[in-house]
Write a structure and sequence with these properties.
The complex is a heterotrimer.
Chain A lengths: L20 H5 L4 E8 L2 E6 L4 E8 L3 E3 H14 L3 E4 L4 E6 L5 H10 L15 E2 L14 H11 L1 H4 L9 E4 L13 E6 L8 H7 L2 H6 L6 E4 L4 E4 L9 H5 L12 E6 L14 E8 L6 H17 L6 H8 L1 H8 L28
Parallel strand pairs in A: 7-8, 8-9
Antiparallel strand pairs in A: 1-2, 2-3, 3-6, 5-6, 9-12, 10-11, 12-13
Chain B lengths: L2 H14 L8 H12 L3 H14 L3 E4 L3 E4 L7
Antiparallel strand pairs in B: 1-2
Helix pairs in contact in B: 1-3, 2-3
Chain C lengths: L7 H4 L9 H9 L3 H16 L19 E2 L17 E5 L5 E3 H14 L3 E4 L5 E5 L3 H13 L15 E2 L13 H11 L1 H5 L9 E4 L8 H4 L2 E7 L4 E2 L1 H8 L4 H6 L7 E4 L2 E4 L9 H5 L4 E2 L4 E7 L13 E7 L6 H17 L6 H8 L1 H8 L27
Parallel strand pairs in C: 6-7, 7-8
Antiparallel strand pairs in C: 1-2, 2-5, 4-5, 8-13, 9-12, 10-11, 13-14
Helix pairs in contact in C: 2-3, 4-5
Classes of the chains: A alpha+beta, B mainly alpha, C alpha+beta.
Chain lengths: 357, 74, 393
């Protein structure tokens, strides 16, 4: 069987051909939208036309079968049109209110988790983990699953003070940049890489391996035609392993999960914020990571209890103060919480005004 | 300079750096343009022909490089 | 096909309300040996708490240095189905819109040439086809490219640009983020497919400062839609909101610049003091709309923490009209890349390079005038440089 001629540099197909006719017709002419419930919103155009969006969670890692099932649903209810969101949800469109309930019923009959709209927990942005990554310190899909199993009601119904964006990164490379999330789980190492001298000699470029270290902990080891590590300078980022595979850093006993909180990317009210360290290490305990789930539960509960309407996690913490955050959550403040890296100086308290906790 | 001549210069440069320093496309464009007084775009076009023919390939090791394909892949 | 391996640990992740990735792997495993062995290998990772993937290798399609991520199992004897398990990145359409026909076409090809596993979508915004063998790459590429699809970016190249859904279904979008993304993608096909940079370069285009695409946190160049004139106020709709919400508490008091007043049922905005954060518009979307003189703020430099700490993008051009053919934009990008190419070290992102060589030096070299919008505050130290023309000789 002969193959068709390959083409190069044609770029993606133009998006316009994939737009629902109502969306195409009212492109750039939307007037307002309303969130009808956790899983349904309506956008109203200046023309008066409406498009209803129904959103459901996906695990992101999808078999072609499931994508075909989404296609079946889109064909049955939406003339074949659908889209995905940046947070791995699938969205179906219908052009009249009467079509919403049959679509919802169909999704419900197939056990879809409908929701994610509004002041809730949307789906979790995450990395590949053990499913496909060579530098994963933990799995990502599994952590997402156990977190969302625990908090699914905040996806499909219950409201919070504002959106709560959760992300999972299986190592500190943080593909997908989870570092500005309300809550992020990050796979971390606690021990330096091991040096496989034979491998370094044969398969690594010594200068770029040395250059990869942000703390200048790596230096040449001419005797072995390899490198050595000043152990006290290493902060276990694993960047050398990215450049030189003969410096494995995975350590099954000591790798674990850090939790960072209080970040956001939107500019509403307060500028975007980085997430900051809440818990430096929790055990990597698959398949259901109970220790991690428990801590996220505590943080979320306190946020739910303490935040004022429209406050994101970071805004709530900024108002009550970080010292108060540690006291209300009962999370232990450790030496690891005090920054000793690039931006350390900016984080030291330069006022005598702080709260007793 | 003839296209074939530039191609030879590029190939020799990559061959000479084997085992010493992996070259990025940018390194090659800069070096050949500077050493031989050719426009970067010309070097780029020559390099593209080499890559399209499979004489040289892109590789990835924490960054993207231009290398001679490994023997077993030829 | 009966189950190839027992997976007691992964079976625990089939329980619960949220859709299960394990169920997805099982679906594909029923048809594909590759997916069956994936399931087996991931179960082993769960048992050992250790990944079993090796570093990327030398795979790709002819002529490209992008779009395929080489992936090999480190225990291929045990799991031959994933001895090769390469990723193919397909450049997704702007805004992630699809028709069922288009998706079915790709899925059929993927079942023919790969594991049947996908990500919708990868973090950067590609459609990810997860797991195939080296010899399948060329035939798959011929099939998808002949049907109008192309590969996305990877390595030290322009990464697949991505955007929010923009004007297609959002009343707040100040720029046509999809059109801009499509245009950038087409404009830089060579830079995307044939890596020539010191390191990766990401574009993300957001229609407004809500930034649903998280451009400010994860794009080397963030383009964020904004406006220069006044927020449009519909006082009748303000009255309707008054019965549903506490306008003072949720809008006036939460305005970060204190530029909104609400008296006698009338909402007044002092636009000259508005920083366009979007809070009031998001709260009262029927009553308040962005102005009509629209464009974008261009920010530069964000990245994840590897290696010297995370950066958020910061302002380099406070306002740029973003209209076709985008000459001013491309001119700026090309100048920035030239400077990066000239000065950047291997694996140095643009944000890190600016930090190393300083922001003032970047502005001078690239020819951008300083503007107070670029900084949160002026410097606090007295150690500034002068140019030759500032000195009396």
């Amino acid at each position: 069987m002969s193959l068709p001629d390959r083409k190069t540099d044609i770029g993606p197909p133009h998006y316009e051909q994939f737009l629902h006719p109502v969306i195409k017709k009212n492109f750039g002419k939307w007037k307002y939208h309303e969130e009808i419930n956790a899983g349904v919103m309506v956008h109203v155009a200046e023309s008066g036309e409406k498009i209803y969006t129904v959103r459901a969670a996906t695990p992101r890692l999808l078999a072609t079968d499931t994508i075909r099932e989404y296609c079946d649903i889109a064909e049955k209810h939406c003339d074949g049109y659908l889209r995905f969101t940046t947070r791995n949800n699938v969205e179906f469109f219908v052009d009249s209110e009467s079509k919403v309930q049959p679509l919802l019923d169909d999704l419900k009959s197939k056990d879809y988790l409908v929701g994610g709209i509004g002041a809730r927990i949307s789906n979790v942005v995450h990395t590949q983990g053990w499913v496909h990554c060579h530098s994963a310190a933990t799995d990502a899909s599994g952590l997402v699953k156990v977190i969302m199993d625990e908090f699914h009601e905040y996806f499909s119904s219950k409201e919070l003070a504002n959106r709560c964006r959760i992300a999972v990164a299986c190592c500190v490379n943080m593909c997908g940049a989870v570092h500005c999330s309300d809550i992020a789980l990050v796979g971390v190492h606690k021990t330096p890489p091991r040096i496989m001298h034979e491998g370094v000699k044969n398969s690594c470029e010594i200068p770029s391996t040395i250059a990869s270290c942000p703390t200048t902990a790596i230096s040449p080891d001419p005797a072995n035609k390899s490198v050595k590590i000043k152990l006290e300078k290493c902060m276990y980022c694993g960047n050398c392993y990215s450049v030189c595979p003969a410096m494995p850093i995975a350590d099954t006993e000591n790798d674990g999960i850090a939790i960072v909180v209080g970040g956001k990317v939107s500019n509403l009210r307060k500028p975007p914020m980085f997430s900051k360290l809440a818990v430096p290490w929790l055990p990597n305990n698959p398949p259901r990571w109970p220790e991690v789930v428990d801590v996220v539960k505590i943080i979320l509960k306190e946020y739910e209890k303490g935040a004022r309407k429209h406050e994101r996690m970071g805004e709530w913490i900024a108002r009550i103060s970080w010292e108060k955050f540690f006291s209300v959550t009962g999370l232990e403040f450790k030496i690891q919480h005090i920054d000793d890296f690039t931006y350390a100086r900016e984080t030291f308290r330069t006022t005598a005004a702080f709260k007793w906790t | 300079m003839e296209r074939e001549e530039i191609k030879k210069i590029i190939y020799d440069l990559v061959e000479k750096s084997v085992g010493k320093k992996k070259l990025k496309q940018g390194d090659i464009l800069k070096k050949v343009a500077a050493d031989h007084g050719v426009e970067k775009d010309e070097v780029k076009a020559a390099l593209r022909e080499l890559v399209d023919a499979g004489t040289l390939i892109f590789t990835y090791f924490g960054g993207s490089y231009i290398e001679i394909p490994p023997k077993e892949a030829v | 096909m009966s189950k190839k391996y027992d997976t007691p640990l992964l079976d625990e992740l089939k329980k619960g309300v949220f859709p299960s990735f394990v169920v997805e792997m099982e679906k594909a495993a029923a048809r594909s040996d590759m997916a069956a062995d994936l399931l087996g290998q991931v179960e082993l990772s769960y048992k050992e708490k250790l990944t079993h993937w090796k570093h990327g290798g030398i795979v790709g399609v002819r002529g490209y240095g992008s779009g395929v991520i080489g992936r090999y199992s480190d225990i291929p004897d045990k799991f031959p189905g994933v001895a090769h398990f390469h990723t193919v990145r397909i450049n997704a359409p702007s805004g992630f819109y699809y028709t069922s026909n288009a998706l079915r076409e790709i899925m059929d090809l993927w079942d023919k040439y790969g594991s049947g596993m996908t990500n919708m979508h990868g973090s950067t915004g590609d459609m990810i086809l997860l797991g195939t063998r080296s010899e399948n790459l060329e035939p798959l590429f011929a099939e998808v490219s002949s049907r109008g699809w192309d590969l996305g970016g990877s390595g030290s190249a322009v990464r697949t640009p991505s955007c929010c859904l923009g004007m297609s279904r959002c009343e707040w979008s100040n720029i046509d983020s999809q059109a801009i993304t499509y245009d950038i993608t087409q404009h830089y096909q060579d830079e995307m497919h044939r890596p020539a940079f010191p390191y990766k370069f990401k574009f993300k285009i957001a229609g407004c400062a809500v930034d649903c695409i998280a451009s400010i946190a994860r794009a080397d160049m963030s383009v964020i839609g904004t406006w220069r004139d006044k927020i449009r106020v519909d006082q009748n709709e303000v009255k309707n909101y008054a019965s549903k919400m506490d306008i003072k508490a949720e809008v006036v008091d939460l305005c970060p610049t204190g530029c909104i007043t609400y008296t006698g049922g009338e909402l007044t905005i002092d636009d000259s003091n508005c920083s366009r954060c979007m809070n009031c518009i998001a709260r009262m979307t029927k009553a308040l709309r962005p102005g009509v003189e629209k464009g974008a703020t261009i920010l530069l430099g964000s990245k994840a923490p590897i290696v010297t700490g995370a950066l958020m993008s910061w302002v380099i051009v406070p306002f740029m009209k973003m209209e076709p053919p985008y000459d001013e934009f491309y001119e700026l990008v090309d100048k920035i890349w030239e400077w990066w190419d000239e000065n950047g070290k291997n694996r140095e992102r643009i944000g890190e390079l600016i930090e190393r060589l300083t922001f003032p030096r970047f502005l001078k070299d690239v020819g951008i005038e300083p503007h107070p919008a670029m900084v949160k505050e002026p410097r606090r130290d007295p150690f500034f440089f002068w140019s030759e023309e500032d000195i009396k000789r």
